[in-house]
């Protein structure tokens, strides 16, 4: 009987030690997880963006905000920034946030959106930074005059104007690797350089602005911007 009691006590001690060990491991895991969470918290510095317009619709309990970004950011950063803006505007059922890049004309389509309706939906409509890098590495057979990134939603292409055999061409290089090109002519227009297709069936032209960007024009006026690329 005495031996059985000793055995039970030994088993209880072993069980207690094992429980303590498992509890300590779980506690350490939670601490490590919390520490990693704090380390990976995403913060977009205020120097990287600015709110340039805010339009409220009381009847629809909706607010539209336009933000200008200094440079392209990731989907995770857009999510963090959207939640930050939402914090001070929780009273709206719908909070729609539109993001333009520096040099883009307001009202011609956003580079990205983060819309609360009321759940958050993040969409990058233009080219990402990784796509920029991929397209910029593609070589062109000719003397490059300039490269521009088409900022219109879903355009996802790089515009390259180059000279070959005394002729000027524009090549559009798309994110899927495909491309198209056509011959262009160069003109002077209101003190600026204007490029247009030699066979200008659609009556479009590209105007080189003082900041190095290309403005796109058609029969109905300006329809987009192409931002200068390195």
Description:
The structure is a single chain. The chain is of the alpha+beta class. The chain folds into 2 domains: 79 residues, no CATH class; 100 residues, Beta Barrel (Lipocalin), CATH 2.40.128. 26% of the residues lie in helices and 40% in strands. The protein is built from 3 helices and 13 strands. It has an 8-stranded antiparallel barrel with strand order 6-7-8-9-10-11-12-13. The longest helix has 38 residues. The radius of gyration is 28 Å and the shape is elongated.
What's the topology here?
Layout: H1 2-39, E1 49-57, E2 62-69, H2 75-87, E3 94-101, E4 112-116, E5 120-124, H3 129-136, E6 143-150, E7 157-164, E8 167-174, E9 179-189, E10 192-197, E11 205-208, E12 214-218, E13 221-228
Number of domains: 2
Query: What is the 3D form?
Result: elongated
For this structure, the CATH topology of the largest domain is: Lipocalin
Strand order of the largest sheet: 6-7-8-9-10-11-12-13
How many individual helices? 3
Strand content: 35-45%
Q: Can I get a quick summary?
A:
This protein is an alpha+beta fold. It has helices at residues 2-39, 75-87, 129-136; strands at 49-57, 62-69, 94-101, 112-116, 120-124, 143-150, 157-164, 167-174, 179-189, 192-197, 205-208, 214-218, 221-228.
